[in-house]
Amino acid sequence: MDGLARRKTDVAVIGAGIVGLCLAGFLAQRGREVMLLDAGGSAASTANAGSLHVQMQSRFMRLFPERVAGFEQQLPLYPQAVDYWREFERAIGADFEMKVSGGLMVAETPEQFEFLVTKSRRERELGLSVELLERADLERVAPYLGPAAFGAELCANEGKLNPLKCNAQIRAWAASQGVTIVDRCKVERLQANTPGFSLATSQGPLDAREVVVAAGPGARALMASAAAFLPVEAEPLHMNITEAAPPLILHLVQHAERSITLKQLSTGQVVIGGGWPAKLAPGAEYPVVDPASLIGNVSLAQFMVPALAPLQIIRTWAGLNSKVDGRGVLGEMPGVPGLYAAIPGDAGYTLGPLTARLVADVMSGRDPGVDMQPYSPMRLLQEDWQAALAAS
Ligand SMILES: Cc1cc2nc3c(=O)[nH]c(=O)nc-3n(C[C@H](O)[C@H](O)[C@H](O)COP(=O)(O)OP(=O)(O)OC[C@H]3O[C@@H](n4cnc5c(N)ncnc54)[C@H](O)[C@@H]3O)c2cc1C
Prior knowledge:
globular; FAD/NAD(P)-binding domain; eight-stranded mixed β-sheet; alpha/beta; 12 helices; 2 domains
């Protein structure tokens, strides 16, 4: 297929997930000519659960203890990111079905509660507003939790939104700002010229003055083709959704030790996920559902909230998350002027619009209002990353 309407653009944004859509819209709003290219693959943004995360997820801390320092550096961005979702919703006149009704991380044992005590102490030092609830408090605040709940950490500025609605409304807004959105257009390779870039795409060649890679798990190969290093890993994850039920669960619910997030959308449906793996065959672009994750994830949900038992699961799906080192990678790539990375970091849907705005600010020479150093791609020049590159 050779169907690009133009062969030249000022900025090419690669990847039309939450980050690419927002970023392309912001740049167009600032007067740039933008083409947004997407392969139409298995994007995290179309698979995600719509949880707005703020407190550190125990899942990440358990699975990737070496990345906790990275999570901690990015932690102050999360409450700002939730506020920014609200600001963005207002600014574009959308309705994301957003509710900031708090998030509970539930402990079943005194040991797990002790983990939450330590975690909350550290989070307070880093500026988060969190509190600990004992069993008696939980019976008042979250009566839907089962008898196993021993206590919980409450983070008031966590919440939820409807990602399908968000994606559709943000896409329409980006198009209304003048972004040319090209679907089913895989960028195979990038070549840095002086100046500008040549892109080889499945719809033919394209020249761009600047390029933003917002391609999630696809970013690593794209950057490598331009002799840049961005060690994004793909993480295939499982999700479930139930039929609609009367209002039951107010909070975003997680567990202090086990992988789960669950919450009830304004449709009444309960979305259950939180890090159970999906299957990804080597070389495959699409992950597939693993029945063991379906059973494990749903059983745990029912154990935590017994009133879920009669509800039918009406859909399950899998998506590809992207991970680096616990932090986003946001900004110009070292040694390749005009090539920008826009990888949001963990719980990247929560961070999507804010991190997109930060990169748009950097590209426009505006003050982003936050210290961008922790997210700089410069850190990838360090020796341990270079060793990883040599081994990959
Ligand atoms: C199942 C699941 C549940 C999740 N739940 C949550 C949640 O509840 N809350 C939360 O905050 N986060 C959640 N996440 C994480 C979050 O969804 C991601 O971090 C976020 O969506 C990343 O957005 P993105 O725009 O950077 O990348 P993506 O959404 O992955 O988009 C990247 C885009 O790039 C395109 N692309 C890739 N390579 C190429 C190429 N070579 N050429 C052209 N296009 C290309 C892909 O087709 C894709 O559309 C979840 C992730 C998964 C997988």
